[in-house]
Amino acid sequence: MRPRPIEDPAAERFERLELATHGIAAAFACGGSLTTDRPLTLRFADGVSFVVQPGPDDTPWNAPSLAPLIQRCDPAPFGKGRSTRYDRRVRNALQLRAQGDSLRVLDFDLATSGILEAVRKALTPDDPNALTAELYGLHVYSAGGHFVQHKDTPRGKDMLGTLVVCLPIGFSGGELELTHRGAIRTFDWGSRSRSPKAPIELRWAAFFGDVDHEVKEVRVGHRITLTWLLRRGSGLPRPLPDGPPTDPLASAFAAAVADPDFLRNGGVLGFRCEHMYSETPGFVRAIPPLDARSVLKLKGLDQHIAAMALAAGLSVALKPYVIEPGLEEQWRLQRFPTTKEAGVFRSHRLTPFRIESALPIESHVECFSPDREVHWLAPPLKRDHHGGTATTLLGAPEYSTTGYFGNEGGDGEFYLYGALLVTVPSWAQRRPKRALKKGGTPSAKPATTTVPKRVAVAPASRRPGSKTPTGEFMTAELHAMGHGPADIRRMLKEGALERTGYGWYRFVR
Question: What is the pLDDT of residue 480?
Answer without folding.
Answer: 66
